[in-house]
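WARN retry 2 of 3 for item q-0093 after timeout on previous attempt; input resubmitted unchanged.
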Amino acid sequence: MKLSGRTDIGAPVAYVFDFLSDFEGWERSAMRRGADVHRTDKLRVPGIGMTWQARFAWRGKERQVQVRLKRMDRPGNIALDFDGPSVEGFVNIELVELAAKRTRMLMQVEVRPRTLAARLFLQSLKLAKAKVQKRYDGRLAGIARDIEARFAGQPTL
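OK item q-0093 returned
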């Protein structure tokens, strides 16, 4: 199943990239929501090859997924792969500078099933694609609002 969306953000492209590549912040955010996230690589600075092991409860079951940073091209692209017992896929984020303080974020997610149960679940999501897409767009808009709010609170130089 593929989902894609875009949103415009009232912040410079470099600021948006820094926000999205704050991997420790994303780890803390996932842990606040009940996930167990552990970094599994030995890299000292953020870069290609970073990996995480995540466990979380979803739909009444314990889920596990390994996430790997595949691409990080400052300030335009971030790509992640994820791999679990029942699903695999990727997330691709592209940032386009529209103006000095305006950035367009394009995000694509693809999830592929590995098991029959996952295939049936993804098929049910495809049947409700409009609702799923609306929720996805809402989450992208929420991320954009968070970035804009944090940028507005930054002191100017």
